[in-house]
Amino acid sequence: MSIRHVDGKVCERMNRVWFRYARNAQRWLWLAVGLGWLAGGLVIAQAALLARLVQEVFLAGTPPSRLLPWWMALIGLFALRGLLAAGSQGAAIRMAAEVKAGLRGMVLRKLVELGPVYLRGQRAGEWLHLVTDGMEHLDTYFARYLPQVALSALIPASVFAYAAAADRITALVLALTAPLLVLLMILIGKSAQKATDRQWRTLAWLSGHFLDVVRGLWTLKVFRRSRAQIGIIRQITDEYRKTTMGTLRIAFLSALVMELFTMISTALVAVSLGLRLVSGKMDFARAFALLLLTPEFYLPIRTVGAQFHAGRDGVSVLERILAVLEAKPPGLAAAGQGRRLPLSHRGYRIEFDHVTARYPGANRDALTDVCLTVEPGETVAIVGPSGAGKSTLLDVLLGYLRVRQGEVRINGVPLQELDLSWWREQVSYLPQHPQFFHGTVADNVRLAGGGESQAESEAAESEPADERVRRACAVALADRFIQDLPRGYDTYLAGEEVRLSGGQRQRLALARAVFKDGPVVLFDEPVADVDIETERALEQVLQGWLRGRTALVVAHRLGLAMQADRIVVMDGGRVAETGTHAELMARHGVYHRLFTTYLGEEMAAP
Ligand SMILES: Nc1ncnc2c1ncn2[C@@H]1O[C@H](COP(=O)(O)OP(=O)(O)OP(=O)(O)O)[C@@H](O)[C@H]1O
């Protein structure tokens, strides 16, 4: 069966996606169609039997009691038809459930594959809507519309075959009117599609905007822009109301037109049969059976028309899902294949060899011709003005962003040849905006796994997990404030139980990276949000912890940079200067300027 003819491109692409992945669901689809067809086929037997019984009772004058077995057969047919229809619906609902579960899994897996660089450019509210409510719109599409597309061809074909055998003129009327009905449906369907797409886009925009407003309410209040947002939300809601009313208008209009058309076609058949019945050219039972079957011929086509409108939301959701599934990841594929290097306590030699990289959709490179080598066990600080490309360097090194030119090598092996999952396991990573997940403080620290690097692995094995969590938190100076939380390490982070400050979140994220205990360390601004006193104390402990690991530490606060083995200064996506603190100060270049500003801030600090 092809569903391509009705939905064009979306279904063509959908065929490729779900027919390939949702094989289980396909079985349920065929069952739903098979049972639905059988139920439809029974209509013919039912009509023929009913017509014969009416003829016997009213025209031949046979007492109804003598026809008892035939009445029983008629009741049996009704019951069987009901059972088959219920079975068909059950199978269709099961198929929709399987498809939704399958697609949800596929979308979530794909989002993981697309990685943080892709997701950063998207609106979180739209994602939320897509994988929750949005997916529910697929029910009507898969459970009702899709099986009905098949039935709208199979049942009319069966009725037509009966009509062709019983009466050619009726068959001719059916053959001429059915394509006109389908044409009418397609014409109305096209304008319905446009209206529903507009409706879906507005709804997705509305939820995305609403989530942004809720998240940013604090900022909006401070800038006295919260009232303006109410106006914008009212405007979008009004737009949504208008598009919804437009879609409903089309749906009502289509129902009316189709009802009218079917009535006229049935009347045509009735007139032709009646004339021949009066002139004695046709027997009553045949004419009556044909008259009973004519509405059944149009019914599945009309139903598919109605389901088409109800399923439009689903098609619009499918378009969004397909856009995600077909998106190209901006980073390298972490397929679990590729080379693994011998484990090393001190980390690995990291080389950026004339690397140029650009974010998807950006019109200029974030990194240009970057050459940089970090030796095993070396700590390199990356400094530079905002937007210089410091975080991009880490994105590239983690394989989240593919390079356009040049190569990144680890111990001489190009990054794209490594098993990326293995490589990421070696890295203790602290992102600029860390996220925490539903669970306790201890769960969130333990999330990093840890114990997979060789460093201290023996000690870790003999140590209880909770002790390791505490130790990591102590290194990140998070232990004290965690103890002060309502339930210490067992405090739940999600929900209302606790709200962490920016500096506390950062130290907790740092504890998670420390817990991981990787031989390679990538820290993006580890001391950005803490007070001067904590910053100094953190610099002290981190200096000790970083020793003997291969580390790239992005730092705006230059205290940490001063203690690094080497400082790399980025500016405009390029490496502007490299050297130790003393060497760079002597140069009077970008670093000198940054340091003078930093010193001024430090002096001004209370
Ligand atoms: N996901 C993205 N999509 C498009 N452009 C991006 C994306 N992330 C960063 N950029 C751009 O790439 C350039 C480098 O950004 P990057 O985040 O690496 O700077 P940075 O030096 O880390 O800045 P900061 O110190 O403010 O964090 C900037 O011009 C930024 O606008």
CATH fold-type name of the domain at 4-325? ABC transporter transmembrane region fold
Q: Roughly how many Å apart are the termini?
A: 75 Å
Strand count, sense and closure of the main sheet?
6 strands, mixed
Silhouette:
elongated
Under the CATH scheme, which class of the domain at 4-325? Mainly Alpha
- Low-pLDDT stretches are 1-7, 450-463
- Corresponding CATH superfamily of the domain at 4-325: ABC transporter type 1, transmembrane domain
Based on secondary structure, the structural category is: alpha/beta
Beta fraction: 5-15%
> C-alpha Rg, in Å?
35 Å
What is the count of helical runs?
A: 22
Any ligands, ions or cofactors bound here, and which? adenosine-5'-triphosphate
* Order of neighbouring strands in the sheet with most strands: 6-7-8-3-9-10
Would you identify the CATH architecture of the domain at 4-325? Up-down Bundle
Helical residues, percent: 55-70%
Summed over residues and divided by their number, the pLDDT gives a mean of: 83
Beta-strand segment tally: 10
